[in-house]
Amino acid sequence: MAWILLLVAGLFEVVWAYSMKLSNGFTHPTYSIVTIVTMTASFGLLSVAMRTLPLGTAYTVWTGIGAIGAFIVGIVFLGEQIGPMRIGAAVLIVGGLVLMKLSAH
């Protein structure tokens, strides 16, 4: 169950990062509210997952999901550049996540 909560927390992290970008420095109220609500949900679910999972594993997976998710959202929805070095960095992050998951007790 902790892994599911951690996955959902990571997905909320992607949402809040994207909505923060769209809030334009918290000048758009709707996106600002979405940012604050999803950020709170993300941190809350992370804290519950950390009751069971090791700190290093939980935090690394959470930030990794957020990083890869934001990378994909940036490319798909914001037209950000995609290049070999960025793809290589994303592959390394995913590899680290897999290793963290495999090393968790």
TrEMBL record:
Recorded hits in InterPro entries, A to Z, give: EmrE-like, Small_drug/metabolite_transptr, Small_multidrug_res
**Where is this chain's protein located in or outside the cell?**
Cell membrane
- Keywords tagged on the record: Cell membrane, Membrane, Transmembrane, Transmembrane helix, Transport
Family annotation (SUPFAM superfamilies): Multidrug resistance efflux transporter EmrE
Q: Which family does it belong to?
A: Belongs to the drug/metabolite transporter (DMT) superfamily. Small multidrug resistance (SMR) (TC 2.A.7.1) family. Gdx/SugE subfamily.
User: Per its UniProt record, what Pfam families does this chain match?
Assistant: Multi_Drug_Res
What membrane topology is annotated for this entry? Multi-pass membrane protein
* Originating species: Massilia norwichensis
The organism's taxonomic lineage, starting at the top: Bacteria, Pseudomonadati, Pseudomonadota, Betaproteobacteria, Burkholderiales
Q: Work out whether the entry's keyword set contains Amino-acid biosynthesis.
A: no
**By what name is this protein known?**
Guanidinium exporter
List all membrane-crossing ranges: 33-50, 57-79, 85-104
* Major location (coarse): membrane
